[in-house]
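Recall the central idea of this unit: under ordinary conditions, the amino acid sequence of a chain determines the structure it adopts. In this exercise we apply that idea directly, starting from the sequence alone.
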Amino acid sequence: MNSLSSLMRLLPAACVVWTGWRVRKGALPPSRLAQKLEKAGPAYIKLGQMLATRPDIVGEDVARAMEHLQDRLPPFAGAKARAVIEREFARPLTTLFSRFDAPVAAASIAQVHRAATTGNVEVAVKVLRPGIEAQFARDLDALFLFARIAEKFSAEARRLRFIALVQTLAASVALELDLRMEAAAASELYDRTSADAEFRVPHVDWARTSGRVLTSEWIDGTPIRDPAALRAAGHDPRKIALTLVRSFLTQALRDGFFHADMHPGNLFVDSAGRLVAVDFGIMGRLDAPMRRFMAGTLAGFLTRDYRKIAQLHYDVAFVSPHHDMETFAQALRAIGEPIFGKSAREVSMARLLGQLFETTRRFDMQAQPQLVLLQKTMVVVEGVARGLDPDFDIWEASRPVAERWVSENLGPEAHLARAAEGFSALGKLAQDLPQLVRNAEELSQMVAEGGVRLHPDTARQIAREQDRRTRPLWLALFALAIVMALAGLLRSYGAF
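Accordingly, the structure predicted from this sequence is:
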């Protein structure tokens, strides 16, 4: 790579940063920043999509200007979409669809058409933008160059692991550009959530799906971005906000597999009041140890037990032992107490982000690139919930999900269940028998006192149940500061 071409690759990022700085100074309208992001390429558009959900951070005017980046970008010609489909399946489009309408939504990577199959089934047909792979390759090259330069000259960039963050983004993009992988993700999430009464996933038409085309069930629903339309359709936006957050946490904790692109353009409410998600190009996974850590951290904040949260982090060596644990617990308290039980109107997320970012730096905690999707999704989900209910309390919304997971996976009841499952294996039975006896005695006492309930010591047992080899999930609910690392690749947050 010669120096001139390297410099040219950085020009889009430099242009976005300069425009963002001028927007902040009031010299330009926010619409100009949205235009610059749109023109800079698909990676920059994805950054704008996230910012559109956080008016509390970037301001109402900037967030509104970014909204069209979610699913209202200029579409490409329908003739090109038809050509892609016919090339993918090596047959005329009319042998697949009896009707193929104009695009109904267009985003950075693909656009969606409503159509009817030859069997008269209403479907949504997603088609990749022509040439999108080359565009993303160009953007990623620029981001990698930016990250290498930043890590060479900045200790902070090395701590935040800019290069690893871009590598994570690149791996995610590679999956997103193969619509067969998206179809598989949709199918898996459909299977995992099919019994959930308030969340729904459209099923995939595999016969009309390929690497560049994805066909799925058509969803008639009200867009979640419009609270007035939701109310007019008989839905309660506050209840939908609750369903959104609990569905996300349930997917992350229960399944370890979650929709990681829950911006308003991908969410609808059907006539039965169920939340419907579409667009499964970006999905996240958490292994069992990480889910245990997430639940432990969340439960620690819910019980305001900051020392236990601190202990979790020291147990997994996330915080260097040369830092005093009590001081770290004090820093966690300084973050948690001012916002505990407060409504969204009473909490400045911009100030919270700054405090979290300062804390990570003070205790030398490295960014965890593998957690970027979880943290980014939490930012987006909370932002969408705030749009539906300005007084949304994410603590209370999270409590039932966390307590249920704790009860089923970490409490005495879970020990009994695991022992029962392995009863036929004598080695497993011998291993669990002492704990089984103790748990049986505890449950007997519960029954004698009026029924089986969640053990009062369950929350306090979480820390002791952690696998010391697990990777950390620092402040899983409010680890928003790490997301700033990704945005920092463009130096954009500092420009707003």
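The mean pLDDT is 76.
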